[in-house]
Amino acid sequence: MKNELPYDLVRTLLAVVDEGTFDAAAAVLHVTPSAVSQRVKALEQRTGRVLLTRTRPVRATDSGQVVVRYARQLARLEGDARAELGMDGGPATASPTRLAIAVNADSLSTWFVPALASLAEDAHLYLDLRREDEAHTTELLREGEVLAAVTSSPDPVAGCSVRRLGAMRYLPVATPAFAARWRSGPPAHWVPRAPLVCFDRRDDLQDAFARDLTGGQPASPLRHYVPSSEGFAQAVTAGLGWGLVPEEQALLGLHSGALARLLPGHTLDVPLFWQQWRLDSPALFTVAAAIAEAAGRSLR
Amino acid sequence: MKNELPYDLVRTLLAVVDEGTFDAAAAVLHVTPSAVSQRVKALEQRTGRVLLTRTRPVRATDSGQVVVRYARQLARLEGDARAELGMDGGPATASPTRLAIAVNADSLSTWFVPALASLAEDAHLYLDLRREDEAHTTELLREGEVLAAVTSSPDPVAGCSVRRLGAMRYLPVATPAFAARWRSGPPAHWVPRAPLVCFDRRDDLQDAFARDLTGGQPASPLRHYVPSSEGFAQAVTAGLGWGLVPEEQALLGLHSGALARLLPGHTLDVPLFWQQWRLDSPALFTVAAAIAEAAGRSLR
Question: For a tag on chain A, would you pick the N or C end, based on fewer CB atoms within 10 A?
Fold first, then answer.
């Protein structure tokens, strides 16, 4: 494989995909945009495939993603080897290694980032986090866009290992005034009618919860879309609708009286898993251990 | 125009774009997927253009976006007229009107949503918020994806009015330990070297700030990408890098001692504008007034 895919060409392709344009890749690689273009063409001739869409930003084609995935593994392994050999001459001259990880929005806004405080001491390892719905993070793993992912899928992507992190608990909450206005009779009566807040159109947490409660009916079509974790909690706190709020955020509102539990005793637990490529990488190992440890404290 | 673009066909196209698939649109419209498909084809025959890409989710083509924009204006005006005529027979039977608004992530996580608490009393108006970089929200306006936007651009999109909301103030902060380790000598010496946190690859706030300070040098290539407003503040608080944090969030950390100002006296003000389509819509007017009022309190 090495003869067919020279390292400088592969690394150039990766830079173009990561930076989004030929010009930006050229700046990072300290070469001219024309050299970048020639290297990508050379790689396409060698592989006999179109590897990039010439859009802004450029995107890897299906064939391109195979090469990108290979390039990321090479870069990861080289970064680890350089670190072990002490070749990174101090923080100022180290070439940073990026660890691309997909994380669901609620984890990214609550327990995930503080778990990585230990990386502050590591001058050659940098995070490249992608926010993605927990049911869709595995797509990014499969495409080789990320090395690891926090996902709701326990089924390992080909080439990946999987480990259970615990469950994120959500509480159905609303303002006391909202509860007084909408909650009357059994859940099957009011849950399909009461306005709610959803994160975005991919968010089916509330509908799944409603179906369980009502024997199959989804939540109301009267719904606000608020694609931000704090914005979501703020929308519920403002009385725009009910919603499933992560326990940590919900408890703040419950203690202050701004929120009320809509269905005492009912919660929704979303199991989360850590999937990562099978790579003998000390950096990835370090991050995975920190995440597992924090998940043990923060999740159920 | 009415004869050429029958309302039921236009509304069907809008439902397909909003819901993402023919099946989902069919469920919302209470017709069969086959009927949805036939209506879209009929509309394409009438206009002589392909209006949708048959992808999952489907997307409007350039021609499709023109029709979508027209459809949203019709829906908005119809919703307003129904409300004025008292035709919405109570919350349970009202057909909800969606107000699609693009908002930059930091606004969406701080002052924007609480400003809309008054909508909780309005049973026929629902928010469809889109999170987008403040420099790119105008694209969504131009494409007709949203009716209004919080944007950094004072130049009105064709057909839109623009109004200044105020400036969002950012403070350059880091942990005290980070400041002690990296900050030595003039900014031109250490700012281009110190690791930092960026929101994503579109976020050039830190680079623009660094260029101003150093006479042209961008911030360090040693950077973490954390695409979440709270995650961003958490990453800075964890010591992963310095970053420009919205004043409201930064002050919490400064008061507790978790954060320190990196360059006392230096701040970055990002002016924000409200752009909206020129529509005689009471609902849009109500929302715009609430946003302007909240911006007056929260922004500079």
Answer: N
